[in-house]
Give the backbone structure.
Amino acid sequence: MKCRKCGKKALVNLKAYRISLCGDCFLEFYRRIVERSIKKYRIFKNDDKILVAVSGGKDSSAMASVLRELGHDFELLHIDLGIYDYSKDSRDKVKELSKLIEKSLHILELRDYGFTISEVKGKKCSICGTAKRYIMNRFARENRFTVIATGHTAEDITAFYLKNIAGGQKEYSEKLLPRTEPFDERVVARTRPIFEMSEKENMIYAILKNLPLKLEECPFAPNPDWKEIVYEIERRKPGFVKNFVRGIAVEQHRFEKKYCSICGEVSTREICSFCRIRSRFISSK
Ligand code: AMP
Ligand code: ZN
């Protein structure tokens, strides 16, 4: 098989895009998609101070690396959850990543808040998620970051959406959109710059870029049912996941609440269509 872009020997076959690419062309392809989603879905604002949350895994490491390649300024945050050797290894990988991509790293320990995930009995995973969100938000706000970027993938977002819709919680399903704005001044905006990328694409990117990775799953990883359903649909209908997340993102875009900066009426843009027309008419008189 040959690379669709340059004709060299292809290394990867992306069924979702019906394209085969060599390593270099894949990296370029990956960067362009992330760059396009950042623009299209307004993932970052011009004056954002960005905090990138990294776990040591392939997805958030690929995100940090591609954001650097695209020229974004940011700092890294890692939370040590106190899960035996798993946390120690993750922390080491994140330190290596920070050196490699030359971005400063903040490490916070859940232990300093009075407990570790290893000590929690029962619902470790949901407690871990709550603890991470709490610590990330508090740290970001106290250090004047205006947005937190996480490495949620297209599969994460699709599985989360389907699970919540199936559970009758539609309002919840929309929590993982490309960018969610705070509903209170104590909450920092959240963004998912690689929401269009699949786990496989992140893995290929991370390997080709030789990123330090913690490959083992967390020993307390959640029940994978919804993820497996998503993998199965993608296997039978290649492109499903990509189209699904794009579909959700477009919905958000359409219903984003905004007001015209001239007249204050509801608008999808900075200045509403009526005021744009009116300004043309007035200025041409
Ligand atoms: P998860 O909730 O484990 O699916 O992770 C989703 C995203 O949260 C990752 O892509 C990271 O951006 C972030 N994240 C997960 N674990 C950590 C951690 N220990 N420290 C900092 N960020 C994390
Ligand atoms: Zn090529």
